[in-house]
Amino acid sequence: MIRLLFIGDVVGRSGRAAVLEHVPLLRARWGLDFVIVNGENAAGGFGLTESIFQDFLAVGVDAVTLGNHAFDQREALLFIERQPRLIRPVNFPPGTPGRGAAVIENVKGERLLVVNVMGRVFMDPLDDPFAAVRRELDLYPLGTACDASLVDFHAEATSEKWAFGHVVDGKASLVIGTHTHAPSADHRILVGGTGFITDVGMTGDYDSVIGMDKSEPVRRFTTKVPSGRFEPALGPATLCAVAAEIGADGLTKAIAPVRIGGLLSEAQPGFWT
Ligand SMILES: [Fe+2]
Ligand SMILES: [Fe+2]
Q1: How far, in Å, is the centroid of ligand 2 from the Cα of 234?
Q2: How confident is the model at residue 225, as a pLDDT?
């Protein structure tokens, strides 16, 4: 059995503090084999710096995924090339720096394929996410090239995420939706054995507008007059994640939401206590 924790979009200083505080504790308490984090909003809400990325690895994060904000910090275009555990959407155009998939090995020798991909509904037009991920899953089949596989499907539309789950059902261990920053209550195991959730939610201050200090977004929605920059909200974060147990066949046997701290109601997996 492989025990995996996926932490949703970390927003700003507040979200980072939650990751740094909780990851070492949760790794030990639950005996986690892999911890994956979506870091696309970790640097002031926009992108990721190398020092933040290294802070995450130092507390026990195994890999970091990205999304539409992947290259908001220009330095990411450079350091992603030397960081094999940093994964950007696989369906970015050919020539984009970095990689969209990687096999991460842990100290026990277990191999996890991590794929990051972006949806196309209400988002930038990119290559077909379904075909792009299928190529990666064909290259790294469960049970031979890897022991487990996880797809971070970074997308706006719930329908696209559900359709994607069905397409890879039985071929990937887990499909975890990211990007909306609101946790959905529909975590489940699909008929073919793939663990699924529409959106894991963000790790940040929920007294906000999707992680940003609420004053400027509210002003823009109500008056259309921008009068400042978007800044991350600085109150205590809720760490939002998905916990999953993956069997010897590479399929998910148990999945549960995790919510710790901040404004949201607490949730922890019952199967590891
Ligand atoms: Fe995000
Ligand atoms: Fe996003």
Answers
A1: 19
A2: 87
Catalytic residue among 22, 69, 179, 187: 69
Give DSSP secondary structure letters for 217-258.
Answer: HHHHHHH----S---B--SPPBEEEEEEEE-TTSSEEEEEEE
Q: Is the pLDDT of residue 273 over 90?
A: no
Distant-in-sequence, close-in-space partners of 130: CB < 8 Å, separation ≥ 6: 164, 167
Taking the centre of ligand 1 as the mean of its atom positions, its distance from the CA of residue 154, in whole angstroms, is: 8
Instruction: Tell me, yes or no, if 69 is annotated catalytic.
Output: yes
3-state class (DSSP) for residue 64: strand
pLDDT in tens, 112-130: 999 999 999 999 999 999 9
Nearest ligand to residue 119 Cα = 2
Ligand 1 mean position to 155 CA, how many Å? 9
- Ligand 2 centre to CA of 120 (Å) is 12
Q: Give the mean model confidence (pLDDT) for residues 21-44.
A: 98
State the DSSP code for 264.
Answer: S
pLDDT the model gives residue 226: 86
Model confidence pLDDT, tens digit, residues 199-251: 999 999 999 999 999 999 999 999 988 889 999 999 999 999 999 999 999 99
